[in-house]
Specification:
7-stranded antiparallel beta sheet; disordered N terminus; 11 helices; single chain; globular
Length: about 450
């Protein structure tokens, strides 16, 4: 009992030291290292359904979940970085990048960590009639392990873009353009072609999956199981707490060689229902709109794993295993990448429906006119701040200073923490700029200021 109390106190102490400021992935120092190309990146379009973050990292001794974003934002930050790596030169072809998914995550286990980055992007060129042609679609997941993986995300993202650009570099342009279907500008910018592709996967167009073994996720998505491998699905009621009313399903064969093959399969179907293999167990897949969902075991508790690592030995293992007992947890499938997505991502981090942005200005001087998405927001005096609520996770919030050279800043704010934006101006002769600053810096300065209504 004394040991468990000490472990609980240790966990609480570690929690109080947790980092909560959003983590920024920086690509400025990353080099693609590619030779001269015949094209340059003219623009990056961020078409993700949620643009408020690119994922989560784990920081501190207890692996506290912290929202992560890309320095400068996905659209503006990537445009700046890629245009620096692949600058426009005389005769180079302008290329547009659409980002459908750009995400990072970390797999935290009792003895290992892995950093993952997933890219789902495409490259297009604009035609003389203003239509667009998509010439390359690139989907990739990069996974690297280490003792501390948070510092690997910039490497992973840069590696993913490098592989995508190499494909573009090796492209037979005349053939690609001739084979592509031109898209009207409105359809291209709204990604209607991409959405149509997601809805057209064969498994989404059938009432029931075909019977057989799905060796890979692609087999499942195309509804083309291997029917040559015989197996039997054996079902037994689960009795563990929280799992009553569900069944443990196993794919079995009396042939030992075939059993090894079954044990490596992505999933199975009995002709009526499909099952996914997750953590070496099969779980029932259920249709949910344009994807599938299933209930599986909960993921490891980061605090329990951290305390178990600190305590060590059998007692530490007991703490970790007790907190990771695998209670029922909802998951869904990404039909594009095959990734298993946690439907309750980081519930320990508060995430509301409204983001908070605080714009502040230090120093003295006459009030500055500030516009919010083209409309008058306020006249902000020196040593003043204004709070801005924001509810859209896809539309960028745009702040501008129209009277001072139209300095602007556009971004989708984080919905888990307040974003602080400072109007910076060293001297009266300098043009002011809008800069996102660390939360602790914003809090320090604004607590001495008066809010402007």
């Amino acid at each position: 009992m004394k040991f468990l109390l000490a472990a609980a106190l240790l966990m609480a102490a570690l929690s109080t030291q947790a980092q909560t400021n959003p983590f920024l992935v920086r690509l400025n120092d990353q080099q693609l290292g590619l030779p001269s190309t015949t094209f340059h990146i003219a623009r990056v379009l961020d078409l993700r359904p949620d643009r408020s973050r690119i994922g989560w990292v784990h920081q501190g001794l207890i692996n506290q979940p912290v929202p992560a974003n890309l320095m400068g934002g996905v659209a503006a930050g990537l445009t700046q970085w890629l245009s620096t790596q692949l600058p426009a030169r005389a005769g180079t072809r302008p290329v547009i990048v659409r980002v459908h998914e750009l995400s990072i995550e970390e797999e935290i286990g009792p003895t290992s960590e892995h950093a993952l980055a997933t890219l789902d992007i495409d490259f297009a060129v604009q035609q003389h009639d203003s239509s667009y042609i998509v010439v390359v679609q690139h989907l990739e997941t990069i996974r690297k392990g280490g003792l501390e993986t948070t510092g690997l995300h910039d490497d992973n993202l840069a590696a993913g873009f490098r592989q995508a650009i190499i494909r573009l570099q090796n492209l037979n342009w005349p053939e690609a353009i001739a084979a592509a279907k031109p898209l009207p500008a409105a359809d291209y910018l709204a990604a209607t072609d991409y959405q149509a592709m997601l809805r057209a996967y064969p498994i989404l167009l059938t009432a029931a999956p075909s019977q057989g073994m799905f060796a890979t996720f692609e087999d499942f998505r195309s509804n083309q199981p291997d029917t040559r491998v015989p197996f039997t699905l054996v079902r037994q009621p689960r009795t563990a707490a929280g799992w009553q009313g569900t069944e443990e399903v196993k794919a079995t064969s009396s042939n030992q060689a075939l059993q090894k093959q079954l044990n490596k399969a992505w999933g199975f179907s009995d002709g009526q229902q499909a099952y996914i293999r997750y953590r070496n167990h099969l779980y029932l897949l259920e249709r949910a709109g344009h994807t599938f969902e299933f209930t599986g075991p909960g993921t490891a508790d980061a605090e329990a794993v951290a305390v178990g690592a600190v305590v060590g030995g059998l007692a530490g293992a007991a703490i970790a295993s007790a907190a990771t007992g695998g209670s029922p947890h909802p998951y869904s499938l990404s039909m594009r990448t095959g990734r298993v997505l946690d439907n309750q991502v980081q519930p320990a981090v508060s995430q509301g429906d409204t983001a908070q942005v605080v714009l502040f200005r230090r120093g003295k001087g006459p009030a500055m006119v500030v516009q919010l998405t083209g409309q008058m927001l306020t006249q902000l005096p020196g040593n003043g701040f204004v709070r801005i609520p924001w509810t859209s996770k896809t539309q960028e919030l745009q702040l501008c200073l129209p009277e001072t050279g139209a300095a602007c800043l556009s971004f989708v704010p984080d919905f888990t923490a307040t974003t602080y934006v400072e109007i910076k101006q060293k001297t009266a002769a300098d043009k002011p700029t809008l800069v996102i600053v660390p939360a602790k810096e914003g809090i320090f300065y604004t607590k001495k200021m008066q809010p402007v209504r």
